[in-house]
Amino acid sequence: LAKTTQPISMDSYEGQEVNITCSHNNIATNDYITWYQQFPSQGPRFIIQGYKTKVTNEVASLFIPADRKSSTLSLPRVSLSDTAVYYCLVVNFNKFYFGSGTKLNVKP
Amino acid sequence: NAGVTQTPKFRVLKTGQSMTLLCAQDMNHEYMYWYRQDPGMGLRLIHYSVGEGTTAKGEVPDGYNVSRLKKQNFLLGLESAAPSQTSVYFCASERGDSGYYEQYFGPGTRLTVT
Prior knowledge:
The complex is a heterodimer.
Chain A: E1 9-13, E2 18-23, E3 32-38, E4 45-50, E5 53-56, E6 61-64, E7 70-75, E8 84-91, E9 102-107
Parallel strand pairs in A: 1-9
Antiparallel strand pairs in A: 2-7, 3-4, 3-8, 5-6, 6-7, 8-9
Chain B: E1 4-7, E2 10-13, E3 19-25, E4 31-37, E5 43-49, E6 56-57, E7 65-67, E8 73-78, E9 87-94, E10 103-105, E11 109-113
Parallel strand pairs in B: 2-11
Antiparallel strand pairs in B: 1-3, 3-8, 4-5, 4-9, 5-6, 7-8, 9-10, 9-11
């Protein structure tokens, strides 16, 4: 099971682009990478999933280099409401691991 | 379409008491999960199910039991509550399709054991 390493916390300002990088050196061939967002007193919410290269949806982009040993979640033009904990997971069927996540603090 | 619901939202137990947490999903998902989250920590998997009638242990299963008699429901039981089980409990469901790993979470149950 590939565990992940993320920064404990990050600060940003409204309107900036935020990039959160996750390390997963032991990722296996069939593993995918997913990211979740969690607000206080709520369950996590799925943001994005990727296997390789770049994936983009309406809220974020996910960049995965060719060796897949890391990934970067990109949040464009963050607002105060993006203050939350962001979790990177390596998943394969029912095998996954929620680490401690990255606490993103967006300042006005 | 309510998604994933959890009952109850809050509960206070005395040490040694028992209780059952109910999770229900209306998305016809195959996989269901129970997690616990302690203050300032990430989620830890307690038990999970990959289909009706199946259950399996996760990372921290001791002190808990589960059952999945119906596809839409996943029950988490505490037979003899301990203060160390004070936590927020989240249930989640997932389609179970290969290559698609989006989990849908419930709102959580805040349990305090005194």
